[in-house]
Amino acid sequence: MTTSADAQIHQYSHINGSPEDLLNRFAVSELCKGWPVYRDASEWKNYRSLFCKEAMVWTTDRRCHVHPLPTTAWSKGQTIDNFIAISKRGKDRGDFIMHRECGTLVEVSQSHPDRAIGKMKATITQRFQTQGHQANVFCPAGAEFDVDCDCRFIFFCVKEKTEIGGTEWKAKYVKLFYEKDKVVPVDGNRAPTFDPELLASFPEGYRHLAAAQSALGYPVTRCLPTARDHGAWHAMYGKMEQWLAGSDVDLLCEDDGDDDQKTKENGLKRKDAAAAADDGKLPSDDRGDAVRVKTAVTNGYHGNGAPMALNCGLENEKNGLGKEISLESVR
């Protein structure tokens, strides 16, 4: 869960205002809602029209469109055209992913009225079949289940000039906060068993979704912002305010790789951090990501106003001042 600290420093045009304010916010809200409406229905031309020419998106899936099951890391984001190609191929191979929009609000900058942030609460729901290694006496191989992941889509939007001299809102970047997820038995009874080490290797906000996607052979990024990762949470808000101030933003994120050994090592590190928190060795209210919370609390992003890098390594966490805190140094 998030902390009680206010996530945002400034206020922007978000409710009420002039007719122009209302129309701008409505246009951006309409743009955001196009993601679930158009992508889920394979309305690709409409979906593509939501984005700038060079738009980038970040999701859990790091697949490259060149190979069937690639090992190339796409943790630095994907162009929107690559993302559409990946989405099409996923549908061709049977991926069944839907999105439920749960509410959308928009902030428009008063100082830079061509900049806006769209905040869309949504639930990603994906249908899976239980794999052989996930089966148990109550859930045989082939039994269907869903994974529902509550999240917030953040749209970094800009008003662009059109070829005929008008203007229109487009999304330049899209990145998500992953808040919590759960396994949902389709028949109300049967759910698979996930390897605890595999689950522990992913952030709490989307670990069941990531584990289920991994079971299908997909490389899944491990460094997306979550409600438990308070450092990355506030860093993301810093990027949002930087965007509304008229600057471009760097949303790139280091990932911890694909190999199985590193996955196991990261899982053990998370367990060690959680155990240290339980023993009172770490003053953290976030046991799953104790090291990251320690980093965020120690460096106080909001206190100095410096932008915080969205680097997500567990062993060495960087803050906006370039300082590092290692796992050993906080034990």
From TrEMBL:
Organism, scientific name: Apiospora aurea
Record domain SnoaL-like: where: 21-135
InterPro entries the UniProt entry points to: NTF2-like_dom_sf (IPR032710), SnoaL-like (IPR037401)
Name used for this protein in its record: SnoaL-like domain-containing protein
Record's compositionally biased regions (Basic and acidic residues): 260-291
Pfam families: SnoaL_4
Chain positions covered by the region annotation Disordered: 256-291
